[in-house]
Design goal:
Oligomer: single chain
Largest sheet: 10 strands, mixed
Low-confidence stretches: none
Strand content: over 45%
Number of helices: 1
Shape: elongated
Mean pLDDT: 80
Radius of gyration: 23 Å
Structural class: alpha/beta
Length: 155
């Protein structure tokens, strides 16, 4: 059993793979994952032959100059014995240019006792899209109300 209670665990400086033989108990500290692309060898992977339990700490993803696109995903953690995350875990995203991450939503995906944890990128709707949707709904409401008034005057 390897217990992390503070400090930083980073599978590689640049993209790399760190293998742990046995179980991992992550109580506090930072798991830093560098992402420089979407192909194997362009992002960090933590491979664990046993189970991985995260009770707290930070998952930090560093993208550097890499610009992720909607639909990109990375398997950053593999544990043959299963993975369990608790709610005390914080996730951060770091970019060389702070504007790079705008317009995207990053989602972690794993289920209790899953053997892989993935990071997904999806688009965040721009404010203009919400404005158009609200305007369209208002127009539909106005049209319906007008139609009801017309029907009431006929009857």
């Amino acid at each position: 059993l390897l217990t992390v209670d503070g400090g930083t665990v980073s599978p590689g400086h640049s993209a790399g793979t760190l293998s742990i033989d046995g179980d991992l108990l992550f109580k506090s500290g930072t798991l830093l994952s560098d992402i420089q692309g979407t192909r194997a060898g362009q992002f960090d992977v933590l491979n664990i032959s046993g189970s991985a339990t995260f009770e707290g700490g930070i998952l930090a993803f560093s993208f550097g100059d890499f610009l992720p696109q909607r639909g990109n995903s990375w398997t950053f953690l593999k544990a043959e014995g299963g993975i369990s995350f608790l709610e005390g875990l914080t996730t951060t995203f770091n970019f060389s240019n702070p504007e790079t991450g705008r317009g995207y939503r990053f989602d972690l995906s794993t289920i209790q006792n899953a053997t892989e944890a993935r990071l997904f990128v999806s688009a965040v709707p721009e404010p203009e899209i919400y404005a158009m949707m609200i305007s369209g709904l208002a127009l539909l409401g106005w049209h319906r109300r007008r139609r009801q008034r017309k029907n009431n005057t006929k009857g």
